[in-house]
Design a protein that fits this description.
With about 725 residues, the chain is an alpha/beta fold. Helix content is about 35%, strand content about 20%. It binds adenosine-5'-diphosphate and magnesium ion.
Length: about 725
């Protein structure tokens, strides 16, 4: 059959090979070209059971059997349109009926043509009771089989199960991938031949065949290894290129040893931990380089990251440059500003009578500032009078001119997308790039970090000096009234002892519909049953209800959520900080970084709606001062239900690294660093970030070697193309340039 020639290798549109239905089915997974089709892996495989004899098959059994068609009859159905096709088959030991309810005429013709009398077929399905006391199999899988050893092995091969969207059937997906296999040789081959040979990996064409028509599960795994290695290789090549580019880019050398940083160290009300010292040294040596650093500073909530970052920022100022600290929200930017001014004391008082002679100026720059304040601040930023600037990440996109930006610290990277940091490249003085440090309290396991942010130097803090009190977490079942009562009673006791309570809700108002949970489809394209979450409680209604709870009588209750104006939010946070509010009911706006050392209780309502790292962040809001913290994860799930077990696992683990693994295992890499992130880490398709560590490291070695020998990938055009695609998928605005 004559087929159209592809216009260009690898970019043959699928519409030229497939039916319209198949093309649409794949397009719903964003698979539009032969290249993508060949890399579209089945979700899992079903291995038919060993062949059984019909004589032994009992009602309810899932069976596979080789049988012969004896008889076939069809009748119309009484209660609905369509026909009933019944096929009697036997394997010589017994007889069963294969039953098909068919809505459309052509389907009956299709089955009949494949099931002539005397045909040998292998049939898979569940045995049920038939009409006249016999046994039947409704809608079995079947195919013709040759009665030879190979034929039987073929009949027993694993069946790929593809992910599905609504109105797409496995049959459509199977026929589409089978047709794609015929064109496997036209696809871009990203992995160099020598690499494949050296590692004993199958070629892409072979891998595609193994994935879609494996004879054994081992073959399927072998095919998958190609895709995993290829994915890791492309990612690592991106990182290798970025690192190589950094080495060609000049950056200010932040090397000065004073005066501010040593003065600051003297003023610290505590001694730095060993880890803080060590990481501080490592960071200092990196930003002392004449090329831009990109570092990820990770450590649990309270591990003292901010202090380390501040010391590096002072080093930048000491070296005659500026430093900026970016926070995800205005509330947090303001808090950082307060903290920094507080920690610096007279060192932040440049221009004031009581300022230290070596002092610098610390400026806050947010979108909601009044024009006059903003103009003044901008003047300080542009002139260089402000050594340290604190703002929201809007600063990245705004055309704010710095006199000489040497260091950028980004707090809580999971809100940004790590890749955004590359926007900052242009902001340095005289064509130089500033150094960038991203701080995160959602630690990433080592392999995962290598795979997803492999162009960053990862610096990890393991102690938590700032968590003096510590936090104990409990799961509370809303349906067990006594537990709930005890929880509020406990909150009341803490308030009576002068402490404060956070209550976090999943939404603002109960009048509104919950955000619809994404519908998951099973492999037959049916919607999976709803997990049965109770509607979430809202901030407004919860605050009203708490006002009437006897356990909290007399408590001063405040509310905080994203619909308040900036001033209102500031006011509430200030009241909370000043101890004028006892119970703050809020949405997750307080999730990251809010610092109220006097708060000792964190109650998360409908906790099953929150992610692992969110819950960990939330409980990190208490126990920050001298008082031990208590976190309650209140859930509508029944004890023993999956949601409860999951919450209990979080409650039982305080190690952020173990939690990150738990999270990875449960949700996969896409959600590694939170929901709102973008970038490379959100597009990992095939890699298992926990298990593929050896493979990732091997791919890294190969990719770095390739980029070293051919920095612009002139000899590796297929890799260059794959990188371009990957970056486009990862972040359309940032990376296309
Ligand atoms: P992170 O940003 O990692 O959550 P912070 O730097 O905000 O942590 O520190 C948390 C709290 O611990 C702050 O109140 C900080 O002043 C305090 N802190 C930081 N380092 C130390 C230390 N070495 N000893 C005692 N307290 C510390
Ligand atoms: Mg912090």
């Amino acid at each position: 059959m004559a087929r159209k020639q592809p216009a260009r290798r690898g970019v043959m549109p699928l519409s030229e090979l497939l039916t319209e239905k198949e093309t649409k089915a794949l397009a719903s997974f964003d698979v539009r070209e032969i290249d993508a089709l060949l890399r579209f892996a089945p979700r899992r495989y079903v291995v038919p059971g060993p062949l059984t004899s019909l004589y032994d098959a009992e009602v309810g059994d899932d069976i596979s059997a080789v049988v012969t068609v004896q008889d076939i009859h069809e009748r119309t159905m009484r209660n609905r349109p369509g026909t009933l096709l019944e096929v009697d088959v036997t394997d010589g030991t017994a007889t069963v009926t294969l039953t098909f309810f068919l809505g459309k005429r052509h389907l009956s013709g299709w089955h009949r043509s494949r099931l002539p009398r005397g045909a040998r077929i292998v049939v898979h399905g569940t045995v049920g009771e038939g009409y006249r006391g016999g046994r039947q199999i409704v809608h079995p899988d079947y195919e013709q089989v040759e009665d030879t050893e190979e034929g039987l092995a073929w009949a027993q091969r694993p069946r790929p199960i593809y992910p599905l969207r609504k109105n797409i059937s496995q049959a459509t997906m199977r026929s589409a991938t089978q047709k794609g296999l015929e064109f496997a040789d036209t696809a871009e081959r990203i992995l160099p031949e020598e690499v494949l040979a050296h590692r004993g990996l199958p070629t892409l064409a072979e891998a595609a065949r193994l994935l879609h028509t494996p004879l054994t599960l081992g073959e399927a795994r072998r095919g998958m290894t190609h895709l995993r290695f290829e994915e890791a290789f492309v990612l690592q090549a991106i990182f290798a290129q970025r690192r190589a580019q950094d080495l060609r880019t000049p950056a200010p050398e932040l090397r000065a040893e004073g005066p501010l940083q040593p003065l600051f160290d003297e003023r610290l009300p505590f001694t730095l931990t060993e880890g803080q010292h060590e990481i501080g040294e490592q960071l200092a040596s990196r930003i002392g380089n004449g090329h831009p650093t990109s570092a990820l500073l990770q450590g649990d909530v309270g591990s003292g990251k901010t202090v380390i970052a501040l010391r590096a920022m002072l080093r930048a100022v000491d070296s005659g440059h500026q430093a900026v600290l970016l926070a995800p929200t205005e509330v947090l930017a303001e808090q950082h500003h307060r903290t920094i001014v507080g920690l610096l004391g007279d060192l932040a008082g440049a221009g004031h009578l009581d300022g230290h002679p070596d002092a610098t100026r610390v400026r806050l720059l947010t979108g909601s500032q009044r024009t006059t304040a903003r103009r003044e601040t901008l003047l300080d930023v542009t002139s260089g009078a402000a050594g340290i600037v604190v703002g929201t990440h809007a600063l990245l996109t705004e055309s704010v001119e710095f006199a000489s930006l040497g260091l950028v610290v980004i707090d809580e990277q999971h809100r940004f997308g790590v890749d955004h940091r590359r926007r900052l490249r242009a902001k340095g003085p005289g064509g130089m790039s500033p150094h960038v440090v991203v701080m995160t309290a959602t630690p990433i396991p080592r392999t995962a970090a290598l795979a997803t942010v492999g162009d960053l130097d990862v610096l990890t803090l393991r102690e938590s000096p700032g968590r003096r009190g510590g936090v104990t977490s409990f799961v509370v079942h809303e349906r067990l009234a006594r537990w709930e009562e005890r929880m509020w009673q406990r909150a009341g006791e803490e308030i009576a002892a002068g402490r404060q309570v956070f209550v976090v809700c999943a939404r603002i108002d109960e009048g509104e519909a919950d955000a619809p949970a994404p519908k998951e489809l099973d492999e037959y394209g049916r919607e999976k049953p709803d997990p049965g979450l109770a509607p979430a409680r809202g901030v407004t209604q919860t605050a009203e209800r708490l006002a009437t709870r006897p356990e909290l009588a007399g408590a001063r209750i405040g509310v905080l959520h994203g619909r308040l104006t900036t001033e209102e939010k500031q006011e509430v946070m200030a009241e909370m900080a000043a101890g004028e509010i006892d119970v703050l009911v809020s949405t997750t706006v307080i999730e990251v970084g809010v610092d109220v050392p006097n708060a000792s209780v964190m109650i998360v309502l409908d906790a099953e709606r929150f992610g692992v790292s969110q819950l960990h962040q939330l409980r990190g809001r208490v126990g920050r001062g001298e008082h031990p913290g208590i976190a309650f994860f209140d859930t509508s799930a029944e004890p023993g239900e999956a949601h409860s077990t999951h919450l209990q696992a979080i409650a039982d683990t305080s190690d952020g690294f173990l939690l990150a693994e738990l999270d990875l295992r449960r949700r996969g890499a896409g959600d590694l660093v939170g929901e709102e992130q973008s970038g490379l880490q959100s597009t990992v398709k095939h890699l298992d970030l926990l298990r593929d560590s050896r493979l990732i490291e091997a791919a890294r070695e190969v990719a770095f070697a390739v980029v070293k020998g051919d920095p612009d990938l002139e000899e590796h055009t297929q890799l260059a193309g794959a990188i371009a695609l990957r970056l486009r998928d990862a972040d359309p605005d940032v990376e296309r340039s």
